[in-house]
Amino acid sequence: MLQQILEQKKEEITKLETCYSLKRDRKKTSLYKAIRASEASPALIAEVKKASPSKGTIKEHYVPAEIAAEYEQGGAAAISVLTDQRFFQGHIADLVAVKQMVSLPVLRKDFIIDKIQVLESAHIGADAILLIAAAMTPQKLHELYRFAHEHDLECLVEVHSVEELQAVLNEFTPELIGINNRDLRTFKTDVNHTAAIASHIPEGILTVSESGIKDTEDLHFLRSHSIDAILVGETLMRASSPAEGIRMLYGS
Ligand SMILES: O=P(O)(O)OC[C@@H](O)[C@@H](O)c1c[nH]c2ccccc12
């Protein structure tokens, strides 16, 4: 038994070593700049996602680094990686693997509510993290935002409603705001949600529309509302290949 456990530990240590060496050589890249520099309109943040609480397993053959490499080739501006284990079947090792594979900025998609998770994110090589307004007070959000920036991490601040947005803006002005089209009670998505909230976002802040983006029609709609970027997971993961998914979305 001990032998078996030690074998397992060796595997875990190899992963840890990858984390450490990665931290030494990793090149930081900016999500903000990548969105601004993208030729695609809106820019694409392509998500690597195995499963979700509402849909169960989305992709059986799940090799995050391979998927991310195809996203990069396909013209994505950045990669988002789900690292939550319990509900999304992700892992921090997925982010480590993706960061090693691509030169695009990598967003850590998780439920970050504590400074220790911010430190962990910096440590595993994330360039940016998601902060969900619904998960904490605006003061706490601001505190984590500042802490993340001190550790060289950008933040995508996610809101679901105009009320949440106003509460955040009363406290501070984030660089990047994500509007989640998914209603967290019903799990239904609607891109009109983005249009309704985006008009309340001041100039200068980059706006990202998240969740439930399915086709070229959605994309054109969001473009007509001057959305800077879209965050797409499921549609790309269900396409015959990630690259094909991007072609289908952008209609090229
Ligand atoms: O797979 P979709 O519908 O394209 O959605 C991607 C992304 O927006 C979604 O995964 C997401 C948005 N905010 C989150 C917060 C936590 C976990 C996941 C998410």
TrEMBL record:
GO function term, MF aspect, one: indole-3-glycerol-phosphate synthase activity
Q: Which key words are in the record? A: Amino-acid biosynthesis, Aromatic amino acid biosynthesis, Decarboxylase, Lyase, Tryptophan biosynthesis
Question: Signal as a keyword?
Answer: no
Residue intervals of the Indole-3-glycerol phosphate synthase domain: 2-248
Q: Give the pathway.
A: Amino-acid biosynthesis; L-tryptophan biosynthesis; L-tryptophan from chorismate: step 4/5
The record ties this protein, via InterPro entries, to: Aldolase_TIM (IPR013785), Indole-3-glycerol_P_synth (IPR045186), Indole-3-glycerol_P_synth_dom (IPR013798), Indole-3-GlycerolPSynthase_CS (IPR001468), RibuloseP-bd_barrel (IPR011060)
**Enzyme Commission number(s) of this protein:** 4.1.1.48
What is the catalytic activity of this protein?
A: 1-(2-carboxyphenylamino)-1-deoxy-D-ribulose 5-phosphate + H(+) = (1S,2R)-1-C-(indol-3-yl)glycerol 3-phosphate + CO2 + H2O
Q: Pfam families this protein is in?
A: IGPS (PF00218)
Asked if the Swiss-Prot or TrEMBL record annotates the protein with the keyword Metal-binding, the reply is no
Cross-referenced PANTHER family: INDOLE-3-GLYCEROL-PHOSPHATE SYNTHASE, TRYPTOPHAN BIOSYNTHESIS PROTEIN
UniProt-listed HAMAP family: IGPS_B (MF_00134_B)
Recorded family membership: Belongs to the TrpC family.
**Name this protein carries in UniProt:** Indole-3-glycerol phosphate synthase
Species name: Fictibacillus terranigra
Taxonomic lineage from the root = Bacteria, Bacillati, Bacillota, Bacilli, Bacillales
Q: What gene does the UniProt entry assign to this protein?
A: trpC
